[in-house]
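> @MW can you paste both from yesterday?
MW: sure, first one:
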Amino acid sequence: WTPGQRYVTRPEGKWIDDDSPWPTFTLNFREGVPLTEQSPDFSYLYVSLQDRLNWGLLGESEYRIGAGKYVHKSVLPFMDWTHFNGNLTFLSGFGLSDFMQLDYYGYSTNSAFWELHAEHHFKGFLLNKLPLIRRLRLNEFISAHHFTLQSGASHTEFGLGFEKLNIFRVQLYFVYEERKLQSPGL
């Protein structure tokens, strides 16, 4: 739900206007229905807030803050746990909620958690000041991703890099985990 969001309806479809000054609020509820004794029996609630902010010549930022909790969990198979978007390859979809150096199931949880994802795209504000690099028309960005589990375990990543037309992207990122800085990744 985005307060104040406007849209246009025509016979060929519905188009949403993204100019709302408010963020988007999301509420997700999942229920495992116990049909047999081994069937999943749980209730999961997730709330999030997401927005994109335009800073003019300085570029634009996008963020998502969310929290989830299993309200009830009698039978909760591993596939119904919360799994964070990890990536251990050099290829990624580079979505806002993707972690670059997170084991796929290392932090899967069946308890409460909160997460934060943020990226700022400078849109050439810094690299366009360099004469030869300006011709490449690269867009620089910085990012931060974090989650904390109810058990106290957490994972934080900071990154910086550049991209070209959302097709080619290079990012140097740093991971802070278990109260120490891990080796950087590319």
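MW: second:
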Amino acid sequence: MCLHGFTNGRSASNFATVPVYPRKVADILFRRANVDQVSVSATGRAASFACGSFVEIDLEIGGGVCRGGRFRTNGCGYMTASAATLIETLNEKKLRDLHGLDDHQLLASIETELGSLIGRRQCAEVCITALHQSFEAYRAKTIAEYAGETALICTCFGIAENTIVDSIAANGLSTVEEVSAELMA
């Protein structure tokens, strides 16, 4: 049995009559996090060929920080809980701190929160793919919108020369390593 559309307004009382998910998964389903309105900076979408479900993840990114996110899916509770867990993991994190976060770390984060995904791992993998797509869309949008008069030094995070100069002045940075650590540029 699948829950279609986590954001469709199902309440805990409706779900309680069909206890098909482990407690950790069910708890996440009822937190109802990640359904709030966000100012969307980027959207990524992925689908599962195993079950025909999709997940779409919207991220709100501002000032180099992932401010929040939301998702839509027609997938099962495992896919829903995986998407919610990923968004909760990213909330209020600086993009530079997420640099290099790989699929194994993301999957481990989901499994830590949900428990074993035996037989449902593909649900989490689809969510991870959608998340990567969101970040790729954000990067492409940042580059496409760049119209600055100074050089764009880092295309990954949209860091312009003036951003580096401002960060050096504001944070008293004096080495290339310090600038790199601060801005991931």
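> thanks! The CA atoms of residues 47 and 62 lie 27 Å apart.
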